[in-house]
Amino acid sequence: MPPPWVILKTGSTLPAIARRRGDFEDWIADGLGLSRSDILVVPVFEGVPLPPANEVAAVVITGSPAMVTAQHAWSVASAAWLREVWL
Fold first, then answer.
1. Which range marks the domain in which residue 76 is found?
2. pTM
3. pLDDT tens across 23-53, in order?
4. What is the side-by-side order of every strand in the sheet holding 58-61?
5. Pair 11, 66: CB distance under 8 Å
6. How many domains are there within the chain?
């Protein structure tokens, strides 16, 4: 089985929109033409740990109501993980 595309979920859309249209990860998967078996959604803003950096095919980051300048622990950890994936 090939490694998954990781959707790094950093927040959710408004509840009314999510009820009608799904959440950020749904939009991204649909836009990329990926099936649910091809992706791994990691809601880092909820404290879910990221997979090993060398076990992913690609990474897509969702939008978020959180500000990068707030320096949330999950945001800082995600930035470090992204550097591992990139290098």
1. 5-86
2. 0.89
3. 999 999 999 999 989 999 999 999 999 999 9
4. 39-43, 5-9, 58-61
5. yes
6. 1
